[in-house]
Write a structure and sequence with these properties.
Layout (H helix, E strand, L loop, with lengths): L31 E6 L7 E6 L2 E4 H6 L5 H4 L1 H10 L5 H6 L1 H15 L6 H5 L2 E3 L3 E3 L8 E4 L3 H11 L15 E3 L5 E3 L4 E2 L2 E4 L8 E4 L3 E2 L2 E7 L11 H4 L3 E8 L2 E2 H7 L13 E3 L4 E2 L7 E2 L17 H6 L1 E2 L2 E7 L1 H6 L4 E7 L7 H9 L10 E3 L14 H4 L7 E2 L5 E2 L7 E8 L7 E11 L6 H14 L8
Parallel strand pairs: 6-22, 8-16, 9-26
Antiparallel strand pairs: 1-2, 1-5, 2-3, 3-4, 6-7, 10-11, 12-15, 13-14, 13-22, 14-16, 14-17, 18-19, 20-21, 20-25, 23-24, 25-26
């Protein structure tokens, strides 16, 4: 494995909360995000999550820290890019810059660091912060990499042929809508769409009755590729900046009516929630595991196969979904866990996603976002969506307080969480991607004008608190 001093599990930080065993953000993590103090008019700027704090990189630079003479030119340039209101410049710089900055940050935040007093003044408690999207997302592509999810959904839609024949050959994906990607903490309005009710011959316009979540990881692209020039599998991960959590909200009844012949449209484009922190591939290095193709399945074409991909192409990320209903909230009851699964079950790797995406000459750009598709495991309780867990709504999930859910109700809050953990390595967390469902807003001429005004205001900078 490509381990270095930043991965040392014995490293401790002078920020004590980072040393707690269950912290998502120990010194071995150091994920990037964009934030500001909540409730004010400050500019958004880049920061690093460490324990329950954020290291304000703009404040660090203003204090005269991370000068070239102290940390080297590459790390100093990366620090300036990472302090900006969006991380696209840091992403474009490539992995050497992010790695150099990660090393400088690790050394500055360790116990005994000489400049502790200066950096302490640059900390902002996460409880006092709000977030915006970490990058300007130009394009968004949603893949379909879990064979367990694809098979389970296929059984509901096509019992005689659950898995289409191309699935084991092609990393399936569709082009999503980047404008409706939001950061954790923003509420989700129940979408309205065309729905063909059972037994009806004419569709109606109505709020979705089958609102669902999808448990996914997001992949932020770093350095891009030129139009007409693909990215080889061996180089694919050098074009990845890092991973986040992603919930691709779905209106299943709208999706059923519209998805043929061209795939999802309004059933997916209304909202996608991501976590505010981007965990770098370097931080995830201790959790690499072999990528395996089941015995008897066709082997990938040469451009999607390599010895390195087979030996370390998968990442062992633990994923879970939590649900808090209005009744739980009123009773002060904690959210309940709906499912838990592992990303290492994915049928296609991050590298294969990128190699396939670009093999026709498609150009990816810094800040583009790829999604893994819903991640589900082989066991019944490992479904990454209510569609699977409730068998299409026919067998509602029983909640601890006596409520049931086939699909989401208004007031429900869905929270995705993830971490990597194994003996001999520090636990690496992803934070959370959370969103509460609000009641639908039926379109009227007046509300359409109001939505336009709201969209114009939102374009000046959306923010949220988890």
């Amino acid at each position: 494995m490509n381990l270095n001093e930043t991965h040392d599990p014995d490293l401790a930080s002078w920020i004590e909360s980072a040393n707690e065993p269950r912290s998502d953000f120990p010194i071995q993590n150091l994920p990037f995000g964009v934030f500001r103090r909540a409730g004010g008019t400050e500019e958004f700027r880049g920061g690093i999550a460490i324990g329950d704090q954020i290291l304000d990189l703009a404040a660090v630079l203003a204090a005269g820290e991370f000068r070239e003479a102290a940390v080297g030119r590459t790390a100093a340039q990366a620090a300036r890019a990472a302090a900006e209101p969006a991380l696209n410049a840091l992403m474009a710089a490539g992995p050497a810059f992010g790695s150099a900055l990660r090393l400088a940050l690790s050394r500055a935040l360790r116990q005994g660091a000489a400049r502790r007093a200066v950096l302490e003044a640059c900390l902002v408690p996460q409880s006092h912060a709000e977030w915006t999207l970490p990058a300007r997302i130009g394009d968004y592509t949603d893949f379909y990499t879990s064979i367990h999810h694809a098979t389970a959904v296929g059984r509901l839609l096509r019992p005689d042929q659950p898995l289409l024949p191309n699935y084991k050959w092609v990393p399936i994906a569709y082009h999503g809508r980047s404008s409706s990607i939001v950061v954790s903490g923003q509420s989700i309005v129940r979408p309205v769409g065309q729905i063909l009710a059972s037994g009806a011959s004419v569709p109606s316009l109505a709020p979705t009755r089958r609102l669902d979540y999808e448990l996914e990881l997001g992949v932020f692209i770093g350095a891009g590729n030129a139009l007409g020039s693909g990215i080889a599998l061996a180089e694919a991960e050098s074009h990845v900046f890092g991973l986040c959590l992603l919930n691709d909200w779905s209106a299943r009844d709208v999706q059923t009516w519209e998805y043929q012949p061209l795939g999802p449209f309004l059933s997916k484009s209304f909202a996608t929630t991501i976590s505010p922190w981007i965990v770098t591939l370097e931080a995830l290095e201790p959790f690499r595991v072999p990528w395996e193709r089941p015995v008897g399945d066709p082997q990938p074409l040469a451009y999607l196969d390599s010895a390195e991909a087979r030996s370390r192409g998968a990442i062992d990320v633990q994923l879970e979904v939590l649900l808090e209903t209005e009744a739980m909230r009123r009773a002060g009851a904690p959210p309940c866990r709906l499912s838990h699964t592992l990303y290492k079950h994915a049928y296609w790797t991050v590298g294969q996603m990128i190699a396939h995406h670009t093999m026709n000459g498609c150009n990816l750009r810094p800040g583009d976002l790829l999604a893994t598709g819903t991640q589900s495991g082989p066991a019944p309780g490992e479904g990454g969506s209510l569609l699977e867990l409730s068998s299409g709504g026919r067998q509602p999930v029983q909640l601890p307080n006596g409520e049931t859910r086939g699909f989401l109700d208004d007031g429900d809050t869905v929270t995705l969480r993830a971490c990597c953990a194994r003996p001999g390595a520090a636990r690496i967390g992803f934070g959370c991607a959370a969103g509460r469902v609000l009641a639908a807003r039926l379109p009227t001429p007046k509300s359409a004008h109001a939505s336009t005004r709201e969209s114009a205001r939102a374009s000046t900078g959306e923010s949220a608190r988890p």
